[in-house]
Amino acid sequence: MIEIRIHGRGGQGAVIASEVLADAVFQEGKYVQSFPAFGVERRGAPVTAFTRINDKPIRIRTQIYTPDHIMVLDPTLLEVVDVTAGLKDGAWILINSAKPPHTFTFPDRYRVATVDANAIAVKYHLGPRNAPIINTAILGAFARLTGIVSLETLCNAVRAAVPINPEGNVAAVKEAYEQVIGDGQ
Amino acid sequence: MRKVVTGNYAVSWGAKLARAQVIAAYPITPQTSIIEKLASFCANGEMDARFIKVESEHSAMAACIGASAVGARAFTATSGQGLLLMHEVVHWAAGARLPIVMGVVNRAIAPGWSIWTEQNDTLSQRDTGWIQFYCETNQEVLDTTIQAFKIAEKVFLPAMIVLDAFVLSHTSEAVDIPEQAEVDAFLPPYRPPLKLDPEDPRAFGALVLPGEYMELRYKMQKAMEQALSVAEEVDREWGERFGRSWGLVEPYRLDDAELALVTSGTVTGTSREVVDALREEGVKIGLLKVRLFRPFPHQIIREMLAGVRKVAVIDRNISFGDSGVFAQEVRAALYHADKRPPVFDFVAGLGGRDIVPETIREIVDYTVTHDAPTEEFTWVGVKI
Q: Closest Cα of chain A to B269: distance in Å?
């Protein structure tokens, strides 16, 4: 089983990202479960969402405490949330940032990657310029790093899930897929 | 069609496929997305139903009562405080013998304010005369919603489908959504023998003198008793048509078990994982999931638990001054059994505190290391 935790701020689309990822993986024949942190969501406040992926039915019904990978939708969260809590060795830490991965300090047991999802989202007019919706772009980067889902399936899932500007979102997925920078790359 | 949906949307799809004709509802977290989805189905023409916005949950149920009385298939959904505000007319719906179906998302009761899961809201409706189902997965939620209409309309009692806040209501997973034609073949239109009709005037809800009232209650109880076999039959038919059935209760690895966990709702899924892990370690443990809580399947539970040496009930609720409610019911059911295993009761996960595998292992360890309970129930994980 693969467990993924997404850290974002209310309004960035973390919960939708967890659902779109689950839907895409489901389209490739896997069992999935996605859910928000069972909390009260407010715009701008830290939010967490989760996705589980498995080859057989998923019966466990708890929050995710030891994720295999994490996504951080806003780098300022690193100052207020312990994003690596329970994170497994070898995990990818994918951060939405214009800075290269080595500018972030994490223990060597993790792999760090960055993508400038804000710039990509602004380019394709996803949400307002001062608060772009970056959830689709970050998934493109995540798909590239982990190979958990193919780019094509992810694009189809995004197209099906997004009510406004689906093609802009698909373009953002593809651009982030190309642009993501991982450790040592 | 297989689709990834939340537990709440599974309820909405169930009500849509059942062709509910009147939906009257008031929003409350974490139920709101059930009725949002239904409102959207109605607005975009995917569903031919009258959606009535009301000013409270009490009004929501009152509107459903009116709709059901004229012979319409009526549906609502609520949660926590909303269900409590509705309470007076929850009784009324059952006493009027109206087969209304309601989705209820379990939410802990204030104060302190909570939006998280706990069963006290629905268990406090135990004696209202409503059929109650507690669900483990989104597929079960969808299937049970449709089944509930059929059962309710056969016995003329209303039915609740209960799902845990967030752990099921806001969790997305793949659900098989049946074709409308298949559901239509399973669930014919509702045609009550008596209804509120100006062309054929009758009195409803009149004063009933002591000479007759008790007979009305006798008939409600008989209908509840009948609901047991009807629920079984409807679930069997569902299985034949759709290839899945759920049972009134479900035993899991119980055949040669010495210790039986008794669970309801989503705790069941996590408990299955723990049962499998403990079996690997050589512990003879199994599980009995209680899906139907009212009417309570005493006889089946007696038979299923007769062979075990110990029973451990996990209660995500508390009856203050007594114990967990499921344990009360299980103990009462076992009282008339020839062999009565000791019943341990564990109150855990109140107010949405996560019940993780370690919580369940703690419960098992306690049960294994004690010959019999030394108290009515045991708190799990209280930080005092």
A: 5
